[in-house]
Write a structure and sequence with these properties.
This protein has 500 residues and is mainly alpha-helical. It has 22 helices and three strands. The termini are far apart. It has two domains: 145 residues; 237 residues, Neurolysin, domain 3, CATH 1.10.1370. Helix 3 packs across helix 4.
Length: 500
């Protein structure tokens, strides 16, 4: 069995290295690669994806996994855990041909470029051709996996293992109803009628300065990470000590870069907190779900970053950075501005209350696409209708609407629900930390986040894939996914702000 154990750990190490190379290519494409590099990059990405997939599905790898599985009782506890997880992952991957993986990688690399071009030209039709190809590829993938239930369950399972459309519909129905109820009450309040949009500007230098301060306070180590610029903010890890985050400084909202940096830094801290040691370069040193990953970014962005205590520290920092703007703005006024509810068009610029409505909209559309009840050429119209129905605002163009997210260009159908799952988890985590740490509020007021990060490390990060996401949340918070905790949090916070 030693030969088999040596082989599976060597194979995982090589897969980890190849994955890092692929991540570096993707990061470069979205940050510094010249536009005309797309064709060559699609070939490079396709080759890396094919190499990785062929290693995963190789008969030799599978043979050694089977040998170990048949003798599972003779293994150490650590080896049992790794082998069980590997068998489950590899068994699924072996259903998908390498040719398909290569083709998928090539098409999605080119699709990202057509998405960017469509945004520049403000014309969805430019991207629609590639999107149709991607949807057909997703259907083909579902055919290989042959997952029980609707196609969307298959795609959802890749990001949120064990989650189904049926389960999410229950959670999202409650969440949607709760948010709209709160929103309707806010809209009828006098404070909502009088509130005004943020009108001040911060140049890029000042935005960079503020972003660097907050990631330093969050204890994101600068010798293991870096902050760059991209069209759409994202996080990617190339290795145990190399995680990259991006933001954007040219949005109309001067707070966009600040909050997106907090969000991505939350992802980065999770990446750097994965179990290492004996689990380094194994399937265990990873997040069990995208929803759990999003819980970390949403926790820092909203539960911490939009709290009154957080701004006790950062309001004076902003005031010193932009004194002309802040001379007539009190702390309470600024806190209300930061948490202003204003139904808007762009998901990543949405306020905390309405954000999940943007996610539910995409969830409903993606199910329609996979069930063939919605066609690509109908997307702009259906998108706008749903925006009007849920949020009462309608995009003037495709950039404000169906072209705003990059996810579909990368084949990320099924990912969007994880943003709402993570948001719900984040409220549960915050409630539990508040119960466990009686000094929490004073620590946030002083931007002292060491104990918060330590709690997250011990209760979320260090488990990696040792358990499913919902089991990690159950262990940490006493219960699994629960939309009611988040809705109650929203009511407590926003009814106070809007004096309802």
């Amino acid at each position: 069995m030693k030969e088999s154990l040596d082989f599976i750990y060597k194979q995982q190490k090589e897969l980890s290295v190849i994955g890092g190379i692929g991540d570096l290519l993707g990061w470069d494409q979205m940050t510094y690669m010249p536009p005309r590099g797309a064709d060559d990059r699609s070939e490079q990405t396709a080759l890396i994806s094919k190499m990785s997939h062929e290693k995963i599905i190789s008969d030799e790898f599978w043979k050694h996994i089977q040998i170990l599985s048949e003798n599972i009782d003779d293994l150490s506890e650590k080896d049992k855990i790794v082998v069980k997880r590997l068998k489950k992952d590899v068994e699924k991957s072996r259903k998908v041909p390498s040719e398909f993986v290569e083709r998928f990688a090539k098409i999605t690399t080119l699709a990202y470029q057509s998405w960017e071009k469509a945004r520049t030209k403000n014309d969805f039709k430019i991207f629609a051709v590639d999107l149709e190809k991607i949807i057909e590829l997703e259907k083909e993938y579902c055919g290989y996996i042959n997952f029980p239930g609707p196609r969307y369950d298959c795609l959802l399972d890749d990001y949120e293992e064990g989650m189904t459309v049926e389960k999410l519909r229950i959670e999202f129905t409650y969440l949607k109803k709760g948010i709209i109820e709160i929103l309707d009450k806010i809209k009828s309040s006098k404070i909502f009628e009088k509130q005004q949009e943020i009108k001040f500007k911060l140049n890029e230098e000042k935005q960079r300065f503020l972003c660097n301060i907050v990631i330093e306070k969050m204890k994101l180590p600068n010798d293991r990470s870096r902050l760059d610029v991209s069209t759409h903010p994202f996080t990617t890890g190339m290795g145990d000590d190399d995680v990259r985050i991006t933001t954007s400084y040219n949005r109309p909202n001067p707070l966009f870069s600040f909050f997106s940096t907090i969000h991505e830094a939350g992802h980065a801290l999770y990446e750097l907190g994965m179990p290492k040691g004996e689990y380094k370069d194994t399937v265990i040193s990873d997040s069990p779900s995208s929803g759990l990953h999003e819980s970390q970014s949403r926790f820092w962005e909203n539960m911490i970053g939009r709290s009154k205590e957080f701004w006790k520290y950062f309001y004076p920092v902003f005031k010193k950075t932009a004194p002309a703007h802040f001379k007539d703005i009190t702390f309470n006024s600024w806190y209300n501005i930061v948490n202003q509810v204003r139904p808007s068009l762009i998901r990543i610029e949405a306020d905390e209350l309405t954000y999940c409505l943007h996610v539910i909209l995409r969830f409903e559309i993606e199910i329609g696409l996979m069930d063939e009840k919605i066609s690509v050429n109908e997307l702009s119209q259906i998108w706008n209708e749903k925006m009007d129905e849920m949020l009462g605002v309608v995009p003037k163009n495709d950039v404000e609407g169906v072209l705003q997210d990059m996810h579909w260009s990368g084949g990320g159908i099924g990912y969007f629900p994880t943003y709402a799952i993570g948001t719900i988890y984040s409220a549960q985590i915050f409630r539990k930390i508040s119960q466990d740490n009686k000094n929490l509020l004073s620590e946030i007021r002083n931007a002292e986040f060491e104990n918060i990060l330590d709690w997250l490390r011990k209760n979320i990060h260090e488990y990696g894939c040792l358990m499913d996401a919902d089991d990690i949340i159950k262990k940490a918070c006493g219960q699994g996914l629960n939309s009611k905790v988040f809705v109650d949090y929203l009511k407590d916070k926003y009814y106070e702000i809007y004096q309802i």
